[in-house]
Design a protein that fits this description.
4 copies of one chain form a homotetramer.
Chain A (H helix, E strand, L loop, with lengths): L9 H14 L5 E2 L4 H4 L7 E5 L6 E4 L5 E2 L4 H13 L20 H5 L10 H11 L5 H16 L5 E2 L1 H10 L1 H12 L7 H12 L1 E3 L1 H7 L15 H14 L5 H7 L4 E3 L4 E6 L3 E6 L2 E2 L6 H14 L11
Antiparallel strand pairs in A: 1-10, 2-3, 2-9, 4-6, 5-6, 7-8, 8-9
Helix pairs in contact in A: 1-13, 3-5, 5-8, 5-9, 6-9, 6-10, 7-9, 8-9, 11-12
Chain lengths: ~325, ~325, ~325, ~325
């Protein structure tokens, strides 16, 4: 648990970080393999901090909706664990992969068992597991209800155009799904599981909504109780070791907090017991994580002292 | 930071955990590739908890010295960072490898740059870096001084027989060192760097000494100040994502605390701001980490509520 | 060139080999991943030898049609080279892969460029190349015309049930095709290229027909001239180094002749300047090549002296 | 067997090829990782053709001695097969590796069993096998006697300076040897086996001597009978599929004859039943095979019609 030492300084820190991001020249590279995302204006940046029982603080373009993409894997994982419990781990591991988010190398060496639920192959398996006994419509409905309840916002929706765009171009994901199926680790037709997966990735949220939606992983008094305390810890552990693909170690080293990124440029970061932080900037670093978002989180952690590895909350 | 909620219950919890370990039938498998270690009695178990400014609590065989092996990588890393600072990261990464502790696969794909300082290849590079401008004797002297200062115990020493045993049989490490050298990522002759490396791994400590030696990573009032606060966080982050080889994700998931294991059966775990915990039991699981030690730490974390991912210290 | 030393002994040698195959207890394992093939009676064996200008010799079940599967890659390669010439090599290599026929490992490391046209990924690219400027129906028509002309037999056809069976279950091939497409090395939709590919694999031939169809690669007087002499040599070279997947070295070592196998249990082997030999037995060895077929070819080569590596035809 | 169609044209063809090589601008890159070889003048080229019972034809610098390096693996393999017979195959495979000559990737995946005796790891095992029951001096003595007998030339010797140079710098080979030893696939201390291996690679020969030394693999009347006919075929088969590392497929495709290359720039190629051809030019292509040497062999094969895959000797 990190200690929330200086809450009254937070608004100024957020403005400062947003100003620095706006002034940055190197903004990374917008993901171009999903046509609908390639057109996003890279000059956007937002940050939002939600704390249980307190107003959400924001800076920058925090009211602009963006595609949360792989951040959705977090919500689908929570949903899957709620439905299947530890049975899920029969089909997917809990280890960092050491390879890129869409790598097939380990999947071949390990005979179709993905390393963790946050790389694409693992998230496809998670989605497939939720589709046991649920239609795609029902599964996506359950996911939206979960996210809306977490965020306390009924307006959150799926952008069908983005989902359709990825269905047309997501050949790497089709390769992963068919490969999983060839090893018997996909129960449904690849098209069905991927259809659901692409829609789940196409959830759109603003930074404010995303920060709020992360509160259930903060825990403590005033946070929504959607999963058990034990599960909160485990999901946070997975975010720490696996949440940024083969850049997870770097994020833990620089930021020191569990987080999950998406190629839409969003990152959700949890300060256990204290806050949920969402950042968004569309340009990506070479791991496929938001370049300015990671930088902003590094600055926020340094200036607030928030870190799960700190002895005393940064004093 | 975790909260130290019930210090007065700790002695009873430790006794309970030691009793459970003693009663366990599945004790894992003692490492057999270092002849001197293969002869260790597998029926041993110890646990020790050190807290800044308080007496160290122990249970089991906490006064029996054992070979700390790869736990030494932690101390050598701290020493190397103190001497070279961030220059070290030019030669070694900060990412989990996803492969076993002595794998050559990623080392080949990534042209001789080890993934992190806690797999063998990375630790060999760390040792080699400390040997810049120091003889092996000086480097090992500095390491011993560091560990003795951290533990507050001048009796800690290196077991030369274990070092000699590994020099004769450590062909996998020779392979790694020569491979690193072939890529220009070893400044000294492999024999020299490995001679130092094998001696560093052959440091012997009791569980009590090891728990005490970990206090510098706990931080907070009363802990020895051997490295800066910023560095404490970063070393803890590396322990969390990389400290148990390709079982790091599992340890984070089950225990929720940064730790570093060795094939001698020891594990050092940090509860930031609260405690340093050492466990020892010689039998290993298939990742090469102590089987009963991991189990004991999982129980300790569950019963104390200690976890960097918990919202409120487990209350 | 091998020397055809003892043609009058051939009928007796064939009968002997067929008798030995029939008496064999270890017949390998019939491919079970294509449902239509899993039902084949494993107790079948056939061998046929075609020589330019001479009657085709046979033994065993040489009139039973079987699915030629990957042997078809040979004919499609000849067709593709005829249409595209050396442009084909921009998209696929000419090296043995050292990995199994459906491996994705090298395909990932080499960014979607298959090692050779005889592993699945490479054959899918070859088929895709033939589909430039041709509909699937036209491409398959051209392939059938080529095979029928080579074999001098208009009755050769495609088994639609086998093709349909593989379309339903061929997830590994779908994975490869989507992966190729994600790297821009597939011009057509994966479904279209694979539809064609599965139909090409579903060509049915008897051993007699297959031996006759191989005559165009034997060359010399009396052989059908479907491709140039230079191309005959190059296709034979590819068969030698890549024709049996990661068992190619073993086939070259034991048989000493260029060949191409299929999971239907057929193998076509060329004795340059002398003969085309087809064997068929459905049970496969662990490389996915006909177990008894390989054994029969090893015996045939030993007894006839046929080998491209022999100094004097085995005298 | 290839047919020797136009022997009287050979001298002119050789002069022509040597002239073309001399005029070539792109000469490849001299191996720089063995200091003694890095200093070689790249502007040298030689070709020599030996035929049983006929005078050896040469062009270019055919009297200049060069380091045969990995071509020696061929002679050591013949020696090892003579001593151990098929027992050798318990320790090393017969398949192309698909990876570079000093790759560790497959060696790790396949637990220390090298793919074939022509990549470094496999040749180290072959040498180690010959050292069973022989001292290094005896093994090297036997190798020299074999080569001298094959070439009919007692002057052939080992260059100790080159051997010493490689002992100092051959870290990749030390890595391979220690790795093999860690898997129990090396019977002798790595230093001893590698000492022998480096001396074997340091055999020096002229192109004329090398062509003559290859005659035992040509077979037929008048060729030295150092190994059996069956073994000649098998060694030629291994040269065809594995003789040029991950460029073996390319050599088979372009030249169509079994060959073995060395990083000293030499290539020995066998035309079964007809001739043994040695070429030498120090500059290497990206596979580590002689650039001009490969080109020269491609031209020689095209102009003579020599190819094991040709129907009629190139008419």
């Amino acid at each position: 648990m990190a200690v929330d030492t200086a809450p009254d300084l937070l608004p100024a820190i957020l403005q400062e970080i947003a100003a620095e991001a706006r002034a940055s020249r190197d903004r990374g590279k917008v993901a171009d393999y999903i046509p609908e995302l390639a057109a996003i204006d890279p000059d956007q940046f937002a940050i939002a901090i939600a704390r249980p029982g307190q107003p959400t603080l924001t800076a920058g373009d925090a009211a602009v909706p963006f595609s949360i993409q792989s951040v959705s894997k977090l919500f689908m994982l929570a949903l899957a664990l709620g439905r299947l419990g530890d049975r899920l781990w029969n089909r997917v591991g809990r280890e960092p992969s050491g390879h890129s988010f869409d790598s097939m190398l380990l999947l071949e060496l390990e005979k179709g068992r993905p390393r963790n639920p946050f790389i694409n192959a693992g998230a496809i398996v998670t989605t497939d597991a939720v589709l046991e006994g649920a239609t795609p419509r029902e599964a996506l409905g359950a996911l939206l209800r979960f996210i809306r309840a977490a965020a306390g916002d009924e307006a959150i929706h799926i952008n069908d155009r983005v989902a359709a765009s990825e269905t047309t171009t997501g050949h790497r994901n089709f390769a992963l799904a068919h490969y999983l199926r060839s090893h018997g680790n996909l129960s449904n037709p690849p098209e069905m599981t991927l259809g659901t997966y692409f829609h789940q990735c196409a959830v759109e949220m603003t930074c404010t909504q995303l920060a709020n939606a992360g509160l259930f992983l903060v825990g403590g008094a005033g946070a929504p109780r959607l999963v058990s305390q034990a599960r909160i810890r485990r999901i946070n552990a997975l975010m720490m070791t696996c949440g940024h693909y083969d850049g997870s170690g770097d994020y833990a080293f620089r930021v020191g907090l569990p987080g999950k990124s998406g190629v839409g440029g969003g990152i959700l970061t949890i300060v256990p017991g204290v806050a949920s932080v969402a950042v968004w900037s569309p340009g990506l670093n070479h791991y496929g994580n938001s370049h300015l978002g990671t930088q902003a989180m590094e600055r926020l952690a340094a200036r607030t002292g928030w870190s799960v590895f700190g002895p005393d909350g940064g004093v």
